[in-house]
Amino acid sequence: MDFGFIFDFLFIAALVLIFALPVTTAIMAGLGIAAYRIRRRDPARRLTALKWTAIAIGPFWIGGIVLGSLFLVSEIRSHIETAQRYFTLDKAAEVDGAALPAGTTVTLDESHALLSAELPPGATATLRGASWQGKIEFAEPAHAPDAKHGQVNQGTLAADATIDAVPCRAGSEVTFFWGGQLMGCTLSQDTEIAATLAKPDGATQTQKLRCLANDTVKLDNLRAGELEGCRLAETADFGEVSCAANERVLIINDQLAGCTFAR
Q: pLDDT (tens digit, 9 = 90+) per residue, 38-87?
């Protein structure tokens, strides 16, 4: 049995009853007025035709009223739920563990966990030991370690900050993995970051690469704090391959995946 088809049919039928409610109401009202006038003129006259018409139209009218009422209640509840999940703070407050300034527009998810916070112009919030501005997005508790609430997932720094030992520049967008570790940001200064590379014999070795300031750095998800890609501040050698400074290098699965050869 195709339950999807049955559901679609019932849904369409319900919509038809709701949209037809003004028509069925007008018909029922007309029948009532007609019955009233006939009774006044001729109390002995039978109203068989009107009764059968009312019996035929009545179920559609009642169904439309019931379904329309349920729809209205659902809409009211939805608006109330939206108002509870999307609001602006009239004073500084802590929401789901995050201290936010007055004027912040807050969005909660269906479980009422903090989803995002839009700070008013000029305002900042201190989270994870860094100062943030503008819109801050938070990880869903289901994706965060230990279902942690209020964990920053993405935001813009209001001041330079060192996050997971990486110096990030003010005004840059910072992103985090679901596990909470830094994914990427714009460096505020030239920075050495470790990278793990496989050797021809299958073993791995770790070497430090100097990444260029004022450019985006991307970290590895599997090896916390290690490099996946950045623009090199100086020439770097990978075995017999020499990668040029001021160009991007990419490392994937412990292998050099891309760079510009040094001349």
A: 777 767 667 677 677 777 777 777 777 777 777 777 777 776 676 677 88
Q: Please, are residues 152 and 136 in contact by the beta-carbon 8 Å criterion?
A: yes
Q: Which residues contact 18 (CB under 8 A, 6 or more apart)?
A: 64, 67, 68, 71
177 phi/psi in degrees, rounded to 5: -75, 165
CA atoms lying within 13 Å on the CB side of residue 127: 30
- Residue 105 CA, chain-centre distance (Å), reads 15
Element (H, E) at 241: strand 241-243
- The radius of gyration of the chain from alpha carbons, rounded to an integer in Å, stands at 33
pTM, 2 dp: 0.67
Which are the contacts of 90, defined by CB distance < 8 A and separation ≥ 6?
102
Quick one: which of 181, 161, 182 has its CA closest to 171?
161
